[in-house]
Amino acid sequence: MELELRLGDRPPGRQLKNTTAATAAGGGAGGGSGRQNRGLNLGFCVGLVGNESSCPAELPVRLDLLPLSLGPRLAAPSLGFPWASENTNLEALGRGLDVNLVPEEGEAAEVDPAISSSPPAETEKVLSRASDEEENSGARKKLRLSKEQSAFLEESFKEHTTLNPRLKLALAKQLNLRPRQVEVWFQNRRARTKLKQTEVDCEYLKRCCDALTEENRRLRKELSELRALKTSHSFFMQPPATTLSICAACERLPKSSALVSGAEAARPPASAFAPTSAKPRFFDFADPRPAPANQPSAAS
DNA sequence: AAAGGCTACAAGATTACATCA
DNA sequence: TGTGATGTAATCTTGTAGCCT
């Protein structure tokens, strides 16, 4: 049985500036903020060869990443999707910070009717351009989305983890945000989902590691006990210098009926370790974990 | 068909700001 | 009131895919 699991804190000092280097070191599971002491370095590599029973039965829980700040989970029907309902009144829901408001005039979220009638591919290009053009901005100002805005975005994220230009604009218009803000929110949301899922995977692997370590310890103890038993047995019984070797696999005498030493007789033949087709002996590498939450469907 | 430029977008890394204990 | 920790919006960099010439 072999297990290799490397987990560790991010080394002190600055983060790698080079993305490829960082992802290579982290097995593609990099991430995290730029500060130190902010949780795990989520890069890990693992190799498992062992008994299926070695891993904890409970599998990682599929994450529900709805912000705790939202309190009890908001039901989708109660919110309604902004692009599905023209009657949704955000003002009635109550707005958060006014700094999130987009200037009414020159609002790029207004879709030109001509654009709406364009072919899909062309439309998306035009819409994307339109959303970029309103990046006219001045100083960087950190805004805080209201709970309602976050809830809307969350509900939308449950439907689609990625945005298309039309949806981006619809959300932006409905939530009175800039399309860029919606885009950024989705980017960050995907990153958070991945981070959380990686943490869950990490916990799961740690439990596997603990279970395998415990089993390893148990087997070593059993082995030492058997060796001790054998030693005392040979001391008192003085077994014959040679004994018949019986194949452990077929329980028959070899053709040659070779006489081997006691030590060799105690060692099972290599064939005894050969995996049988009936029951796999080693850890099945088929990933037992659930798919990450909000995984984009292949259809979309 | 192959090559190169352009554009859009996603992921990852990082920064900067807001909030809270 | 000051401060560090934390959450997250925003920005930057890089890689990639699709389209066009």
From TrEMBL:
Keywords in alphabetical order: Coiled coil, DNA-binding, Homeobox, Nucleus, Transcription, Transcription regulation
Membership in a protein family: Belongs to the HD-ZIP homeobox family. Class II subfamily.
Entry annotated with the keyword Transmembrane: no
Species assigned in the record: Apostasia shenzhenica
Main location as per UniProt: nucleus
Entries under Pfam families matching the protein: HALZ (PF02183), Homeodomain (PF00046)
Example GO molecular function: sequence-specific DNA binding
Subcellular location(s) of the protein: Nucleus
Gene this chain is encoded by: HOX27
Residue ranges for the DNA-binding region feature of this UniProt entry: 138-197
Protein name: Homeobox-leucine zipper protein HOX27
Region (Disordered): 1-33, 109-142
Cellular component per GO, a single term: nucleus
Coiled-coil residue windows: 202-232
Basic and acidic residues bias (residue ranges): 1-12, 122-131
Domain Homeobox per the UniProt entry, residue ranges: 136-196
